[in-house]
């Protein structure tokens, strides 16, 4: 799937014209928010846990260098090989080399946004190594040649009828739309892959510094099979995913499933603390962790935007966002989407390539309210919009409009005229219709202007208040 944030306008138009997808996304998002509210409301001390988790992440980000060194040395003591990847290219090369060294021609993967971020699947395929996604949603979007449309539910935009047709076309099975039968088809398709793969690739929800291990949270058991059946396990994680110690983990495990899927707890919590022990007869012989920077150090250097690195990828902000609910995840043009995607895209890809992303928000604040870490996404989006303007990357018409606005706002007479004129003009239109705004009104309603003008109305209000 050709996806680049440069083409965001085109993707947004396509998404708005696709009513079935809009309906599927809006319904799924609404259901997720309702289940999240129900579960969060029933968890005692929810707000205290939120504050605790926030303070833990804040401390980790402020002392990330120390935590990373502690994590590396404790992982090594546990027999885990730690690799440092400055950017996407070095992460791809590291994983590719490990795959070649163990003779893997096919690898199984559990859901990992970080590997999507670095374009690992395409790289492996180009180098003759078949990557097989084993999370059900990821497996479906991979068969379709798409990227995920949601951080937690990659195939959220598809109906079961769509999935039935994908399995029929790509796996050569009979069409069915029965969820149990569809799951069984995926299970049979993937089981053989698990049994024959020499290498498994996962992400990591958390890296635990003091104990030198990683934690992978999931519901389908595919991650457990990915990290334990093949001879070699590679986990690719962003450097910001660290938490200080095992004692901090339960706080995160309380917030993550409730915010992500409206569950009290996840079905599987995998803690990987090294290769299989001798005599145990199970577990991988080699475990590697690839620590990815890819711009995170730069983000860490910004005292305000650093907060976006606290994200635990629960997806709750997507579900609550009125913009995401209308356009879905693909319209953002990259692997991160929704409110947090709008904030991450320009930071990872730069103000030029990611210039449209910070504008995909109404700044209503629903994302901040629902975020388990209370990340102030609207504030960050404003700063990022400002950076786009300063880098002279805003659109031509936007620049002209802002210049005209600045001109009028600095001249009271001009300002009075431009706020008075539309109201008077619409009085002359047949039926006193709203002021015509071609293009703008094609997709939304425009209210009638006040015929007295803003300045008059404001003065009247002031007099009344006095
Ligand atoms: S920003 Fe907050 S709500 Fe959104 S995915 Fe990250 S942790 Fe979840």
Give your account of this protein's structure.
52% of the residues lie in helices and 10% in strands. It has 466 residues and is α/β, with parallel strands linked by helices. Among the domains are: 43-294, NagB/RpiA/CoA transferase-like (Rossmann fold, 3-Layer(aba) Sandwich); 396-465, no CATH class. The strands form 2 sheets. Strands 1-10-7-4-2-3 form a 6-stranded parallel sheet, with helices on both faces. The protein has a 4-stranded mixed sheet with strand order 8-5-6-9. The chain is globular, with a radius of gyration of 25 Å. Iron/sulfur cluster binds next to α14.
Which properties best describe this structure?
single chain; 466 residues; alpha/beta; six-stranded parallel beta sheet; four-stranded mixed beta sheet; binds iron/sulfur cluster
Describe what is shown at a glance.
It is built from 21 helices and ten strands. The protein has 466 residues and is an alpha/beta fold. Among the domains are: 43-294, 3-Layer(aba) Sandwich (Rossmann fold), CATH 3.40.50.10420; 396-465, no CATH class.
DSSP strand tally: 10
Mean pLDDT: 93
Q: Give the amount of beta strand, in percent.
A: 5-15%
Fold-level CATH name of the domain at 43-294: Rossmann fold
CATH top level assignment of the domain at 43-294: Alpha Beta
Which superfamily, in CATH terms, is the homologous superfamily of the domain at 43-294?
NagB/RpiA/CoA transferase-like
| Small molecules in complex | iron/sulfur cluster
Distance separating the two termini? 61 Å
What low-confidence regions span 5 or more consecutive residues with pLDDT below 50? none
CATH architecture classification of the domain at 43-294? 3-Layer(aba) Sandwich
Main sheet, how many strands, which sense, barrel?
6 strands, parallel
Number of H- or I-type helical stretches: 21
CA-based shape: globular
Helix fraction, binned, reads 40-55%
Task: Assign the structural class, choosing from mainly alpha, mainly beta, alpha/beta, alpha+beta, or little secondary structure.
Answer: alpha/beta
Radius of gyration: 25 Å
- Spatial arrangement of strands, main beta sheet: 1-10-7-4-2-3
């Amino acid at each position: 799937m050709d996806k680049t944030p440069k083409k965001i306008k085109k993707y947004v138009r396509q998404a708005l014209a696709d009513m079935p997808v809009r309906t599927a996304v809006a319904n799924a998002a609404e259901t997720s928010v309702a289940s999240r509210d129900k579960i969060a409301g029933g968890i005692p001390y929810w707000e205290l846990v939120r504050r605790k988790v926030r303070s833990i992440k804040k401390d980790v980000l402020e002392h990330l260098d120390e935590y990373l060194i502690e994590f590396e040395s404790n992982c090594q003591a546990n027999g885990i090989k730690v690799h440092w990847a400055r950017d996407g290219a070095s992460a791809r090369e590291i994983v590719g080399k490990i795959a070649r060294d163990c003779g893997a021609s096919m690898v199984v993967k559990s859901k990992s946004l970080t590997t999507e971020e670095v374009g690992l699947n395409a790289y492996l395929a180009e180098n003759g190594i078949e990557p097989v996604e084993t999370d059900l949603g990821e497996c479906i979007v991979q068969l379709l040649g798409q990227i995920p449309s949601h951080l937690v539910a990659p195939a959220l935009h598809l109906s079961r009828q769509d999935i039935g047709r994908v399995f029929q076309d790509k796996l050569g099975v009979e069409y069915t739309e029965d969820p149990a039968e569809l799951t069984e088809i995926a299970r049979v398709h993937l089981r053989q892959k698990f049994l024959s793969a020499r290498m498994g690739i996962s992400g990591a929800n958390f890296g635990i510094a003091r104990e030198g291990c990683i934690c992978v949270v999931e519901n389908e058991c595919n991650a457990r099979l990915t990290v334990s059946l093949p001879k070699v396990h590679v986990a690719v994680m962003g450097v910001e995913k660290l938490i200080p110690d095992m004692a901090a983990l339960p706080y995160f495990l309380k917030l993550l499933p409730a915010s992500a899927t409206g569950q009290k707890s996840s079905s599987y919590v995998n803690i990987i603390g090294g290769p299989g022990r001798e005599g145990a007869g199970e577990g991988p012989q080699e475990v590697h962790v690839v620590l990815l920077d890819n711009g995170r150090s730069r983000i860490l250097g910004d005292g305000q935007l650093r907060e976006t690195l606290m994200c635990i990828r629960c997806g709750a902000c997507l579900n609550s966002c009125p913009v995401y609910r209308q356009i879905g995840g693909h319209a953002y043009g990259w692997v991160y989407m929704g409110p947090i995607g709008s904030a991450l895209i320009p930071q990872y890809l730069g103000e030029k390539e990611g210039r449209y992303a910070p504008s995909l928000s109404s700044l209503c604040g629903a994302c901040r309210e629902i975020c388990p870490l209370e990340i102030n996404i609207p504030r960050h989006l404003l700063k990022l919009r400002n950076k786009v303007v300063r880098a002279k990357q805003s659109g031509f018409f936007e620049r002209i409009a802002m210049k005209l606005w600045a001109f009028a706002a600095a001249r009271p007479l001009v300002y009075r005229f431009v706020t008075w004129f539309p109201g008077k003009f619409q009085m002359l239109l047949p039926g006193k219709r709203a002021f015509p705004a071609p293009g703008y009104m094609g997709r939304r309603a425009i209210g009638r202007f006040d015929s007295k003008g803003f300045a008059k109305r404001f003065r009247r209000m002031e007099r009344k208040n006095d």
